[in-house]
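Example record used in the benchmark description.
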Amino acid sequence: MEHIPITVIGGGVIGLASALALTKQYGSGKVCLLEKNVKLGMEQSSRSSEVIHSGIYNTGLKRELAIEGNGMWHRFCQQYNIPLLETGKLIIATNSSEENNLDYIIQHKEGIPNVQELSQQQVLKLEPHINATSGIFCPTTAVIDTAKALDVLEKLCERYGTLIAVKNKVISINPSSDKIEIYSEVNGIVSSFTTDYLVNSAGLYSDTIAKMVNPHSNYEIIPVKGEYIQFHNKQNTPISRNVYPVPWEFEHEGRKFYDLGIHLTPSSNGTMIRVGPDVYPITSKEDYKKIKQINTFLEPILKLYSHIKKGDLQFDHVGVLAEEKNNYDFIMESDQNYPHCYNLIGMESPGLTAALAIANKVVKHSKNYCN
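Model output (structure tokens):
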């Protein structure tokens, strides 16, 4: 049976970044990246708001790795000429009740660079066409060209010698104390190989992969759909920054979900404004069907930005986030029975922001099991 020392399952931005970092650490031909889709980054990675977050909303690993990853992306984009629009983020209140929520956010700004509390006049100086009574500005937030970022990561993996296999669906995993047998299917043909160290970066299917390794694994991914629309940025009343309402929470089947709200995000070239996501839990991990109507988005937009009418709006993409049922933070841990299997679970937002920092953490963990 063929042997490849290190295997990463899942070719989204986190899997790509991890495969690249591992290949740099251990050398050409030592790392295999398996992706079930026809190309890399087709799920969460390419169906997001494309925001590089500051980390101000987050706690735990999400906060730590978002802060670290934010700086890493700024340097990476500069080095490899990836479009990154330095928008900053305005979180705005439109009434006194929402201002209380802003106060809560500002109390948790420690570690986030240069966060500013803004009066109404200061908000309007930054964004004259926005409706706000006050706000918070996070200057490190940016918008990235995700397609270009994924392309650069893939090309770097190829340059350094990562073995990339797309259309390669893992169907079975047989671990032992020192080796892991992986069985995958391509066009109905099953092949297998062994590996010493496995990174489960399978996103929406990370719980499935974890159960292949250990049937007693109790991870459970809840798919959360997010629908987007967009409009052309208006020359007379432009938006130049990310504009977010105050976040809120809702409950579904006994679990709380935290929602950043329908926000306005310039594209990385500034020509379009993406609106959304409108989020809700679903049952299928591959449900990308558009359900919401334009009117769903119109009222939330008008609350933030009055210079729009229904005819300006057009449908954009639909994404599905991988939220872990019993945990709100990133989960990065070894399998209890097979510690050379490293699970990355619940890697939803701010997963894109944190990707490069997550990759460094993967390499650090791998050193316990790889030569």
